[in-house]
Records
---
Amino acid sequence: MSELYDIIIIGGGPAGLAAGIYGGRAKLKTVILEKGSVGGMACTTREMVNYPGFKNTTGPDLTAAMADHAREFGAEITRDEVVEIELNGDIKTIKTKKDRELRTQTIIVAVGSQPRRLNIPGEKEMQGNGVSYCATCDADFYQDLHVVVVGNGDAAVEEAMYITRFANKVTIIVIHDEGHLDCNKVSAAKAFQNPKIEFI
């Protein structure tokens, strides 16, 4: 049996929850489908001091407040995974892993992102306690420490440069020969000139 919604939002991170707040506030029948934990990547941050209006909170607390806000306006939040989308015609159909079929004219895709993990011993256990995937979220925890960044693209090099504002030393582990990075040339030049950065 199919269920009709005004808005179906795929993804329950901050963007999906914000869309749910607006949909619910507009008195539109809104559902947010999240396959994992509501809150997305923001949920993995143990201390958050850079979100406007919240001087000191945690990722889980902030995203729980967002979810409560969306529910207060009537948005439904469901843990389920989208397995098929049919976009032909005015009414779109979504099928989920839990055998639900949902129909709507409006789909908002807010699936966010996931970091590329190394899959090494201790990585999962230390996430949020020494292993981080967001320099602007967590760099201040590494004041006066030696930090290792893995990668050689734009995100890795730019985040490494940001971390040098706090850390004593940043080592970037790259996959290429010395002097070759995949990031943009401006960032590469700045990183090579930064006395706190070394490359392996």
---
Amino acid sequence: MGTETASAPLLDISGLDVFYGKIHALRSVSLCVRQGEIVSLIGGNGAGKTTLLCTISGLIRASAGTIAFAGEDMARRAPERIVQDGCSHVPEGRLVFSPLSVEDNLRLGAYSRGADGREAVAEDLDRILEMFPVLRERRRQAAGTLSGGEQQMLSIGRALMARPRLLLLDEPGMGLAPLVTREIFRHIVTLRDRLGLTVLLVEQNARRALKIADRGYVLETGRVTLEGPSRELLANRDVQRAYLGHDIET
């Protein structure tokens, strides 16, 4: 953890615009994520959630706006530099290196830590295998033979090997059984509570995401239309109707 206070923004985005050709994918998006928070980003398909995460991690370039991480603008930095600075992205679809073993996938996550010695990497590897015992059991197994839930744990573990301060999680529950998804979300809370990790979470299951988050933002057609504490968003009729599948009578 850094020197920021609990209320200081670790990630501060202002006036972000992103285009795909002539398509205006993100429109003047502004949001912040404070040190030690879980912040959920919800919205329908095509709202721009994945685009936003990819822009933060440098995979997509913004045409306007600022992305400040720990007080420094990183909107024009290369993706590998952003990882080195402490921001790791767990992409939608997990994207593990299927032929490689679980352990080799995890070690690749430490690639950006070139100056760190083998002992430090080995200590982090052991810590992650302790956090995800199923990965320890399968550490010599090819990653492509793991179940979907195990691959998601591997993808998160690989990102943690870079020692991030901010973790960007894109649809960690996608395609997983409800029981497995609940386990993944328990791990996300543990990362925040035990390691002080800050998390920006994109998840299609809005209710599940908001239940573990401190705050949330609603993204619609590339714009932030609503923000607030998660409990307020869960009680909001418009959010209930659009993303929670019902409208509670009061």
---
Amino acid sequence: MTDAFVSSAKAAALAARMAGLGIREADLVEKFVLGSGRGGQKINKTSSCVYLRHVPSGIEVKCQRSRSRELNRFLARREIAERFAERVRGEKTRRRQEAEKIRRQKRRRSRRQKALMLADKKHRAAKKDARRPVAPNGE
């Protein structure tokens, strides 16, 4: 599975991770599909899009991040391993952690939090007002 795009060290690390998770190559169904989207005539003529399915768990991945079939094969296997680890072992993937972070940021503040935030803002504004130079003639 190594190509000019994927180093042998990365391929070996992925193979070790898949073996550690219990994902065997024999359990994977791999198909190559015609690409679509941006990339011009080349992407529409070649079957560089990789469809990968892990039969025992039913996890499906479709990968078309690059024009290289080999790189897409590597990326699809990495995605399968990530999803499998998330589902079976309950590990939180980087993508899910980022989504949770955004969800927390968008969450509405409670009334108490909002009141404390506004009080802090007023306090800072008062400190800044105290720093202003005194205007002559009492203006």
